Amino acid sequence: MKAQLSKLSKRDQLIQTAVKLFAKNGIHATGVDSIVEQSGVTKKTLYAHFRTKEELVLAVLRHYDGLARNEFMRKVERRATTPRARLLAIFDFAQHWFQQHNFYGCLFVNTIGEYSGKDTPIRQICKEYKKLVKDYIHSLCQQAGVKNPQGLAEELALLLEGATVTAQVSQNPKSAQIAKRAAKALIDKALPPR
Amino acid sequence: MKAQLSKLSKRDQLIQTAVKLFAKNGIHATGVDSIVEQSGVTKKTLYAHFRTKEELVLAVLRHYDGLARNEFMRKVERRATTPRARLLAIFDFAQHWFQQHNFYGCLFVNTIGEYSGKDTPIRQICKEYKKLVKDYIHSLCQQAGVKNPQGLAEELALLLEGATVTAQVSQNPKSAQIAKRAAKALIDKALPPR
DNA sequence: TATTTTGTATACAGATCTGTATATAACTTC
DNA sequence: GAAGTTATATACAGATCTGTATACAAAATA
Question: What pLDDT digit, counting tens, does each position of B80-102 carry?
């Protein structure tokens, strides 16, 4: 059951395999043995690149952080041109995301859920990811000329978060439309359409 | 390190201890040995009441479902009298919840995160909980005389969900205030204050 | 008071977990 | 082409996991 990862470095094969397994089954439920088996890389090699499983987890989160934020911004900007339309396009992107067959909610949220009590570097990365997403929304609000861009960005980020969790739990992607409807009302209030 | 659970049945001692450990450390990371140790109940007794760990998990979720929803509704109704004010009081309750020292996010969301890929009865309970919370919000919307109570309930439930996750990840309870601000705008739109 | 239930205490089986050790093959690079 | 790097294959150590077995004590019930 090896994947087609021949062109990648061993390190990347491990990370990409681990991302999939962590997202689908959770971190504690995913043993390094299954990562080794499905990546087609030896355990010895894994521990040559990462000193512990936790270091692999960190690498996976950092990898996914860059990947996910990049795709988020790219797709939002492709779907609309004006800042205002882009704020709404966030939720069209979300709906598309929720419909992916391998959508298992936000990896960072799921990870925090497994490390609620502990205070490891893992938590820091998850926290940072959410901050950067909000910063991006904030920049769109600024570009749109909103009076209180921070306030609107916080509200829209909350809606996106809620829609994501709801889609994950209820297994229904329509939460994106609900969030979009609410977002439109909040945007219209913060920036009356002329 | 036994807790003071003398008045409870062995079954309840196990459930209450398990709730705490699952919430704090996650389910897969919590071994039955630690539940046994901290509850002051023998492993033999645990397996007399629950055939497997998964059955204990189910009992814990069902127990917490009743407990949490009951407290949610009770506290919301104590904080305000009119349906409209109660819709807003949801977020005051949330802020208070987020500030608890043992707040580790929503147990059901964290649980789903650990069972994303599988389709066990566990998922069903989490799904049902979210539905019942939304139904309660829906009933408040109806009582308030909102034209589209379903629509507003969906939006407010999304805000509550987003605020909860955000408070958990960013470890900052102010997300409740943000959600309340957004909720107020949405409520005012759906039910203009006279 | 005899019996059944319910619990404790503890050890164990078998699987799985993280991480390491050993020995060997392939691929760079000088 | 020799040296050094980077893999593979595989076995193992030691801990921890779920679940069971054995032997005994306490408490309720008949």
Answer: 999 999 999 999 999 999 999 99
